[in-house]
Design brief:
The protein is an alpha+beta fold and 202 residues long. It is built from four helices and seven strands, in the order H-E-E-E-E-H-E-E-H-H-E. Helix 2 crosses helix 3. The two termini are 38 Å apart.
Length: 202
């Protein structure tokens, strides 16, 4: 049986083309017979004086509901892509669970970074993130309901004999979540502006 990581890389090869420098989607055919651009497409509400970050998410043509997300800033590395799926029969994480992973990863990386800067020798950092969805009453559509409550539990292991102050670790964890984690700030504050548009090709 093919292992998970190998299967993941094989699935990514199903993307016929990923342009890491400009987010140009792969060709959907040899020639586009008809193309429609959304006439109501709004311009992005970005501040032109600041940089932006772009990613690409694309359907895997050999699957039913698998999508591959690609980070163009690390496009040469195979680990720059992540596989998503809505189906339990296809490999990949659900988008909502990936959000929890992003939160745990963001805070956990901050913990490791700050403790390293303080000279603390870290043996391990692990994060268990649990979420509960808001009950909005959509029949048979629980998957679209947003996270209402999230709990993160951090496990920090330092080298024995360092005599690390527990209050220092508590402060580091608190800052890592509430002060330095952009994912947490996004979840807590919400995205104030979001625009979208589409193109339709036959």
């Amino acid at each position: 049986m093919t292992s998970g990581p190998l299967l993941f890389l094989q699935a990514l090869r199903g993307l016929r083309h990923v342009d890491c420098h400009g987010l140009n989607f792969r060709s959907l055919g040899t020639k586009a017979a008809h193309k429609v651009v959304d006439p109501f497409m709004k311009s992005p509400s970005f501040d032109g004086s600041r940089t932006t970050t772009g990613i690409q998410v694309q359907w895997m043509p050999t699957s039913k509901y698998q999508f591959a997300g690609t980070d163009p800033t690390h496009c040469e590395a195979s680990t720059s892509s992540v596989l998503l799926s809505l189906s339990e029969n296809e490999e990949g994480m659900s988008p909502m669970n990936l959000l929890l992973i992003a939160l745990g990863g963001c805070a956990g990386m901050n913990i490791k970074l700050i403790l390293d800067k303080r000279g603390v020798i870290v043996e391990d950092v692990a994060v268990a993130v649990t979420g509960q969805r808001k009950k909005e009453g959509f029949k048979n559509m629980e998957g679209i309901e947003p996270w209402e409550s999230i709990h993160a539990e951090f496990k920090v292991v330092v080298r024995r004999g360092l005599d690390v102050d527990e209050e220092v670790v508590r402060k580091v964890v608190d800052d890592s979540v509430n002060k330095y984690c952009g994912v947490h700030k996004t979840l807590a504050g919400g995205v104030s502006r979001m625009t979208w548009g589409y193109t339709l090709t036959e």
